[in-house]
Amino acid sequence: MTIAFEKTTLPIIGAPMAGGTTTPELTEAVARAGGFPFVAGGYLTAEALASLVERMRETTDVFGVNLFAPNPAPIDHEAFADFVTALEPAAAERGVTLNPEPVDDDDHFDAKLDWLIDHPVPVVSMTFNLPTAEAVDRLHAVGSQIIATVTSVPEARVAAERGVDGLIVQGPRAGGHSGTADPTRTIDDRATVDLVRDILAEVDLPVAAGGGVDGEAMVAELIDAGASAVVVGTLLLRSDEAGTSATYRAALASEEFSETQLTRAFTGRPARALVNDFVRRFDPVAVDAYPAVHHLTKEFRAAAKKADDPHGLHLWAGTGYRGAREGSAETIVKDLGAGFARD
User: The whole model's pTM is what?
Assistant: First the structure.
């Protein structure tokens, strides 16, 4: 069976960037370019996801939907309380009152999965945890292919054992949240191409790869290593169609922000961001507590966005962020995949 992301003209996948960054306009632009678009299902209700999926169907019948698979980290309540105490002065400066009680949720996962069973799509991918064998069976029963995001060889092996149809191999240099199934582990830095080779040596499944992609040369490198497609997210953040805020766009292009770092400070789960004052101040005291920390800092981050202050924002970015450029996402995707067009 051919995996759906191998059916597009270009071997480029638009990463599903949740929270409004991947807009309908962005997915449509990726599709027009001949790439594979993903609807970002994270942080949405089933009803909101349904609206985006139905709009996507009007553009193409080759697309995927990404879900956050539930995987809450056990909360050390004392450590969480210490983090709240550390954050309170900065929050007060912005007029934000923090809720000291940890908030948990499953991101409406069951409702969204049920909707996708009732309204099948070509591909469902999952991140933050591996899909269960039950979820794989349910999706296969309605004709959907299932893709797991993996960040290590052991995760790839387990995903294969559970019957997934393909893998998205996410290297540690990717922007935004790591898809690791163990958010408490230390994530060692390594090149995505090396991780791809290690996984393909162990698992016989189609692979798409991303993490630190900075341009056409790295696309070529990943495809030469055996990836069927390359996932790009950071490179689309400054595109016309992305939902990236003006503050965020300016930071990506600014010489003020010169490095990225994996941090748990914003959400309680490892995520790569531009290093700003928030990261420098709060990463040393950050705790493993997703989604509790995500909910704790949400209003703080919203206040920073409203104030046009990049130092209070989660500026997700992979190590290839200097390669992000302005212009149409359609043109960006075409340029990245031009040398690898499929027959």
Answer: 0.96
